Amino acid sequence: MKSTTIPLHRNPKLRSFVLQASLLLLVTYALFSVYQTTVSNLEDRGIKTSIGFFDEVAPFKVGYSPFLEFKLGETTYIEVFFIGVLNTLLVAVLGILAATFLGFFIGVMRTSQNWLASKCALFYVETFRNMPLLLQIMFWNFAIFLAFLPPPKQSIEMGLLFLNSRGLHTPIPVIENHLLSTIWFGIIFASFIGAFVFAKWSKKRFESTGKSLPVFLISISSIIAVSYISFVILGSPLGIDIPVLGKFNFKGGGQLPLPLFSLWFALTIYTSAFIAENVRAGISSISKGQVEAARSIGLTRAQMVRMIILPQALRVVIPPTISQYLNLTKNSSLAIAVGFEEVVAVWANISLNQTGQALIIIAMTIVFYECCSLFTSFILNIYNKRVQITER
Amino acid sequence: MADSTLKFKKLPDRDPPENTIGWIAWIRDNLFSSATNTLTTLIFVYLFYLYIPPFIEWAIINANISGTDRSVCDANKSGACWTFIKVRLEQLLFGLYFASNPEQTWRPIVAFSVFGMLIFPLVIDKTPHKKWLLLALLTLYPVLFICVVYGGVFGIPVSDTGQWGGLLLTFALSFVGIIVALPLGILLALGRRSEMPIVKMMSVTYIEFWRGTPLITILFMASVMLPLFFPSGVDFDKVVRAMIGITLFQSAYTAEAVRGGLQAIDKGQNEASMALGMGYWRRTILIILPQALKISIPSIVNTFIALFKDTSLVSIIGLLDLLKMAQNSSRSLDWNGYDIEGYLFAGFVFWIFCFGMSSYSQKLERKLDTDRRAE
């Protein structure tokens, strides 16, 4: 009888083990030797890789740090890192808010019945999606805003907003009485919880009796009413700081210096083109049968949009839109071209050039962005689990 | 046979109802079907009236194109200064070296035209022997590009990569990124779907690492740290450093695009080829990849578009790509103050390439998306 045992070199388990073990060794060795070479190369240049420089005072000026106070000659490198991170997050949040609104608007316009509106939206999407973001940032900043915005004395006024060649100046709320304003925030929070409970209750009632209430209208108007009345009763615990024209520029209020404003503007326009495309895809992914079925069981148009179209469209729209948010955050690193002080500009560029601590600085920058990326996939996974269609 | 007297008389055909055909009906349906629709139309027409005529006046009617220096444009400020683009065109397209040596300009021109001749038949549906054309584009063309543009053989003088610039550099960077990243990306995608845990883990780590980091950080790393990674004495020039960074970055994105294709292949394909006794590589190369790559072409092309736009980031690490060239030219003393024209031209060139690629990928997507056509 012939032996049926597999020869050793063709045993799949053994082969896979040997392959993986050698791969692991090879990669580990390569990474380790690269690390060692880098450290010794840095030492040849007189740079000892250590985190000791964190507590050294940064010898350069960071002009924009609205959250942490910057003092030349006192602020240390590690604080500069956090200033950069906060500035990145600030522009990311501003950009995400604006791009979402604009993107949904353009996306809905794209599916409009009106031919002109739909074609204009198409033109918008195809123009801004197909040009490099860096070019757009530079175009708005250097060719348009710097060249055409008026000096502070002739600022463009939009209500309480002032736009000039130094940037955008906005009013911001200021806390005048800590205790009362905390109470006020508490009342608003409580009214939101109340609205939430009310919505749950009305849904239950709807499911058992079929009677429905205009939940959204009732909750919104009562939240506004409650917060306004309590604001008055508590004696206005919050004030508003309005920017005032000083000798050279506006003082007070919130300020978006021109680099930040251009970056925000360009990021918003660029990202909104992608979000609009997601929205269009979501709306057109709903089959006609859904709309016809909704009509035939007698839903009103508003009910149809709220209960049939939106839940299905959002399932298609939200995941790629969340990835666009991550892209926007990563793209904010292009700020370096216009001189806005976010993490790549102040940390991976200026601090790196000052200290030469390439390994640590680049690693920290990458870790920061990886955290953003992991956070995004975490949110995406939760969302995808929640909206997964449960099939029998 | 009773009603033999009854005669059928054919009446003349009725005209089609007037309200469903012709341009009047089209306008009514698409522009004035309801009150909101009409209002929208009016708003848009008003906006067009406000913005389009002044733009056309600036960009075309009053534009300057004659002359060779800024005096023409300075004399007529109401129009765009295309003279600037005309004078600097060779720099913008081919970079400093080829613009300053007019007898060498044929080299980038040859490189671009051969590329055009290879790529046009490829995007047309009915071309025969596409496989060979593609193979030529991926293997012979890079060799030709190096020989002609870089030089050093057949008596063609060497052009220093430090002097490369303009569209040529943008093109070279993205082309290298694309063709080197493709095989790397395929391997990574296979690795990510592998059953071997360590291979899978490494591929996932690699892909997510590069995808999570902005390209500008990677370019900084490539330009500052790459020399540190190697023992002293080993050095690359700036363009090669950027190419390495771009390729590593791009391979992760290609891998994700290919993975999408791999996931779409039915399990049965793999099982059937296993049943035929094929080994892993034969299964993969002969059965799985041809199908998977075909499906993933649209998403791969989308990663090309992103990369082509992203190559403009090399201007931040000091390379003179198309964008930087446009910016520098419009900041030079000769043409100071004509930034808008410079950016618009660069943007337009980028736009043509990206729009072309995206139209192609959308066309392919529609072609591949056979199950939706019924609707």
How are the SSEs placed, and which strands pair?
The complex is a heterodimer of chains A (392) and B (375).
Chain A (H helix, E strand, L loop, with lengths): L11 H33 L32 H34 L4 H15 L3 H16 L7 E3 L2 E4 L2 E4 L1 E4 L2 H32 L5 H19 L4 E4 L2 E2 L4 E2 L2 E4 H27 L3 H9 L4 H31 L11 H13 L2 H30 L5
Helix pairs in contact in A: 2-3, 2-7, 2-9, 2-10, 3-7, 4-7, 5-6, 7-9, 8-9, 9-11, 10-11
Chain B lengths: L21 H10 L3 H27 L9 H5 L6 H19 L5 H18 L6 H21 L15 H27 L4 H16 L2 H15 L8 H27 L2 H9 L4 H31 L11 H10 L7 H30 L7
Helix pairs in contact in B: 4-7, 4-13, 4-14, 5-6, 7-8, 7-10, 7-13, 8-10, 9-10, 10-12, 11-12, 12-14, 13-14
Q: Tell me what portion of residues of chain B adopts beta-strand conformation.
A: under 5%
User: What distance lies between the first and last C-alpha atoms of chain B, to the nearest angstrom?
Assistant: 49 Å
Radius of gyration of chain B: 28 Å
- Here the CATH topology of the largest domain in chain A equals MetI-like fold
Which regions of chain B have little confidence, pLDDT < 50, spanning 5+ residues?
Answer: none
Largest sheet features of chain B: none
| Total number of distinct structural domains of chain A | 2
Helix-strand category of chain A: alpha+beta
Strand order of the largest sheet of chain A: 1-2-3-8
Tell me the β content of chain A.
5-15%
Q: What is the CATH third-level topology name of the largest domain in chain B?
A: MetI-like fold
Number of helical elements of chain B:
14
Which percent bin holds the helix content of chain A?
A: 55-70%
Cα shape of chain B: globular
